[in-house]
């Protein structure tokens, strides 16, 4: 029997895509890329206190998560995709997120820095950083023994009070280093924001995820062409 149109089950809609973002510079630079892909938040995430935002695209919602929590949300399925810095991704123990796109935004460097003109005072230098895994990998590759001290912010302070000989921290303009009498020594990693995808979502929501990746890749390319 043919069902009457009104009783038919609705056409199965495309699955909802949940995108994890964190506030700050990456968010500011991600919004124009999302807009170019036809995704505009219902409220300004920089101002709104809401943590789940609808968008102009009915199939996409945004989550506003803590700055270093994007990988956890995407890895454990709280979000299908996310945008986060390479510096954050490099600290993850398991590299099992798909990373299909370099968004070319949030560019800066993870750098080794120390006091201007001063050699380390310890035979085995101490390095203060929030980026323990990247720092260990950097010194392991150089075959140099160091003690790594984990800090959560204001790393520039550590060499000034003798807590550490060096720091490993993000450097953008270099103003924070200069203001504290520190000098960049070596680049540990070039950093930019990456689109990351939950491996299960990559399979189960393949069409929607692929379209988002393609739309964002086109937006990145247009932005690069304008720069
Ligand atoms: C970052 C980084 C440096 C500063 C570098 O801190 O940790 O302190 O920016 O930028 P600059 O080279 O342009 O001076 P951020 O303000 O992001 O806060 P955080 O210390 O919480 O990471």
CATH level-3 fold name of the largest domain: D-Maltodextrin-Binding Protein, domain 2
Q: In CATH's first tier, which class of the largest domain applies?
A: Alpha Beta
Assign the structural class, choosing from mainly alpha, mainly beta, alpha/beta, alpha+beta, or little secondary structure: alpha/beta
Q: Looking at this structure, what is the CATH superfamily of the largest domain?
A: Periplasmic binding protein-like II
* Shape call: elongated
Please tell me the overall pLDDT. 92
Number of helices: 8
Estimated radius of gyration: 21 Å
Bound molecules: 1-O-pyrophosphono-5-O-phosphono-alpha-D-ribofuranose
Residue ranges: pLDDT <50 for 5 or more in a row? 1-6
List how many beta strands DSSP finds. Answer: 11
* N-C termini distance: 60 Å
Order of helices and strands: EHEEHEHEEEHEHEHEEHH
Helix content: 25-40%
Could you say what the CATH architecture of the largest domain is?
A: 3-Layer(aba) Sandwich
What's the quick description here?
This protein is an alpha/beta fold.
Describe this structure in words.
- With 227 residues, this protein is of the alpha/beta class.
- It is 30% helix and 27% strand.
- The chain is built from eight helices and eleven strands.
- Strands 2-3-1-4-11-5 form a six-stranded mixed beta sheet. A five-stranded mixed beta sheet has the order 8-7-9-6-10.
- Helix 4 links the parallel strand 7 and strand 8.
- The chain is elongated, with a radius of gyration of 21 Å.
- The N terminus is likely disordered.
- Bound molecules: 1-O-pyrophosphono-5-O-phosphono-alpha-D-ribofuranose.
- The site of 1-O-pyrophosphono-5-O-phosphono-alpha-D-ribofuranose (PRP) has 9 residues, from strand 9 and helix 6.
- The site of 1-O-pyrophosphono-5-O-phosphono-alpha-D-ribofuranose has 9 residues, from strand 9 and helix 6.
